[in-house]
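Researcher: Can you fold this with protoporphyrin IX containing NI(II) in place?
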Amino acid sequence: MLTADEKQLVLHAWDKVQGHQEDFGAEALERMFTTYPSTKTYFPHFDLHHDSEQVRHHGKKVVTALGNAVHHMDTLSKTLSDLSDLHAYNLRVDPVNFKLLSHCFQVVLAVHLRDEYTPQLHVAFDKFMEAVCNVLTEKYR
Ligand code: HNI
């Protein structure tokens, strides 16, 4: 559970992501595909090369969904219900992969926010991503 202060930290930090959804999302995906190549198996229909339009477009969708979650942290299950259905019933992404993307997205934040990505923001963001991933995998069984 995020404390009220942690929620504020995440919400405030999101101002820095605003406007960079596509860049940050594409970078997080590229890091995930490069560092954990098995994640590429879910995207056989994508061009996964650097700067691929498909990856950029998908990255924007993922980060936009995260932004929606940031703004509805108290109702995450409801907010992410459709995405939870999609990942559990249609895509069947093995839940271990969510931690990998979550880690890669945090690396992107650390790289771009630099000194502003404090240990306090790091823990708050980690808890937020864990909450999102829990919702996205809660319908698996
Ligand atoms: Ni995920 C589609 C959000 C983790 C594989 N995913 C989406 C879409 C969003 C999304 C948004 C687009 C839905 C739509 O078009 O209606 N995915 C998220 C979020 C996370 C996440 C917020 C975790 C933080 N997805 C993952 C992971 C994998 C993954 C870890 C696999 C490694 N997602 C997919 C695939 C699709 C997808 C595959 C369909 C892509 C396509 O367009 O064909």
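Model: Folded with protoporphyrin IX containing NI(II) in place. The chain has a mean pLDDT of 97.
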